[in-house]
Amino acid sequence: IQWLLENYETAEGVSLPRSTLYNHYLRHCQEHKLDPVNAASFGKLIRSVFLGLRTRRLGTRGNSKYHYYGIRIKATSPLNRLQEDQGHMAMRQQPINQGKRYMFKPTVPRPEGVGDGGADQAASGAGDSSQSQQQQHQQFLGDASSALPTFPDINTASDPVPTGVTADDVKTFQTLYKEHCEAILDVVVNLQFALIEQVWRTFWRNPTENGEGQNDADMEKRLTKDKLFILCDYEPVCAFMRSCDHVFYQSLVEVLIPDVLRPIPSALTQAIRNFAKSLEGWLSAAMTNIPKKMVKTKLSAVNAFSQTLRRYTSLNHLAQAARAVLQNTSQINQMLSDLNRVDFAHVQEQASWVCQCDDAVVHRLEQDFKMTLQQQNSLEAWAVWLDSVVTQVLKPYEGSDTFPKAARQFLLKWSFYSSMVIRDLTLRSAASFGSFHLIRLLYDEYMFYLIEHRVAAATGETPIAVMESKLLEMKEGDEIEEVPQPGTSSESVPAPNGTDEPRIKIQKLT
Asked: How far is CA 211 from the centre of its chain?
């Protein structure tokens, strides 16, 4: 008992294979010349020491293992140095969330790697290497302990429960969806991206011909497939799903990419991008025969999730490339030399017709940019400066209903003005054109990131929800508003000086 207390501790959201614990015990008995008890007796002993332990069956079909759920090796324990099951323990011992866990049982071989989004490893040596890489990649993930949002109740007050289901069925659906999200979070934190489709197929009761995503008997007992389909056409349930997905997907983004500027391994970046590109196809396949109303709700949110992951990984990639430029003294000196040759007065004259920006503000930003570049500040210092620019420009609109539109218009003006500077550098055949082009791409993308979060904060939504609403507008053909005719200004946001400005299209990274 003392040995158990010295080496293990209870913890929510983690698990260890039962065989691993027993092997540790056998090793301890061998080292101290003790007679071990059998596995069954050891199981009773450990449950008496660590009350409330649960058992889960994890692994691939025909190769699954029983795990104790709610226990982990102490950080100070010498058992951490053991190589046995090291990769698996590193995979499983990640804090996930609190509360009841959805017991997802994979029915296809569990992928080991993340380099290709989850490909099987043919040899054990390759598998060990992949598990080691996976352990390293998990160090770059954000804290997942609070990633699962607080799920609201489904509001049935304004819309009667449809025929064929009861109020209890609605509550059961809500509980099942929470457990479903727990399973998704578990898979994502363990970087087993290819299992997402199977999790979705299991929830939507749509297995493949080879049994992937086979129906869970317990789920069917709690809520039949027929009742699930009825609820999929129920507006309060769709609204519940939409609200939950916005918050949950935002949490997943923050787990996978906690800091868009922080360097992360290229293999992990590529795995996240492959994951993002596959999401919409996986969900569409999993929701075959599901009522169209629910399919539209789910696909809209997951599309925004996918686009956000792709933009953030592109931003991260640009940030790492830009670091090399910003840390190179000779390149910085060349950029300053080329920048001082730019005719900013002429650039401002051309841009003012479109942007209608205050000359004093533009001049101040120009001087701040040159000073920050001359000081050879870090990328993080540049990020602080860009954030201050957004704060300064949007301050007149804070608390106003026009804030979101003003923020988007500033983004367009920023992009247009920077393109004019790049044009001047190009015409002058500036030696540092390549460096400026890279910096411009990074700063435009980071500005988009800042504006997205500012608009989300101003509207009380998540950035995922902001992105989804914009994507829906684009699908409806409203991504670019008409330039207001002379004398009409109701559809445009007045600038701080009272003028109106037209909209232009911005080209974003893909």
From this structure: 29
Listed in sequence order, the residues at least 6 apart from 263 whose beta carbon sits closer than 8 Å to its beta carbon are 316, 319, 320, 323
Range list of β-strands (E), 18-151: 54-60, 63-73
Closest CA to 408 of 334, 358, 305, 480: 480
For every residue of 159-222, which 3-state class applies, written as one string? CCCCCCCCHHHHHHHHHHHHHHHHHHHHHHHCCCHHHHHHHHHHHCCCCCCCCCCCCCHHHHHH
Closest CA to 409 of 498, 503, 481: 503
Q: Is residue 480 classed as helix, strand or coil in its secondary structure? A: coil
Q: Are strands 63-73 and 8-17 parallel, antiparallel or unpaired?
A: antiparallel
**Taking the chain (510 residues) in consecutive chunks of 10 residues, what is each chunk's mean pLDDT?**
85 76 86 83 84 67 65 81 45 39 43 42 49 74 83 87 92 92 90 91 84 67 92 93 93 93 90 94 93 93 94 93 87 91 83 75 86 87 92 89 90 88 89 90 93 92 87 55 36 37 34
Query: Which residues have C-beta within 8 Å of that of residue 33, sequence separation ≥ 6?
Result: none
CA-CA distance, 112 to 52, in Å (whole number)?
30
Whether 277 and 306 have beta carbons less than 8 Å apart is answered as yes
Rg of the chain taking only CA atoms, in angstroms: 27
Residue 377 CA: distances (Å) to CA of 20, 261, 319: 50, 15, 14
pTM confidence score: 0.69
**How many CB atoms are located within 10 Å of the residue 485 CB?**
8
Residue 304 near residue 247, CB atoms below 8 Å: no
Residue 240 to residue 220: CA distance in whole angstroms: 21
CA dist 156 and 159 (Å) reads 5
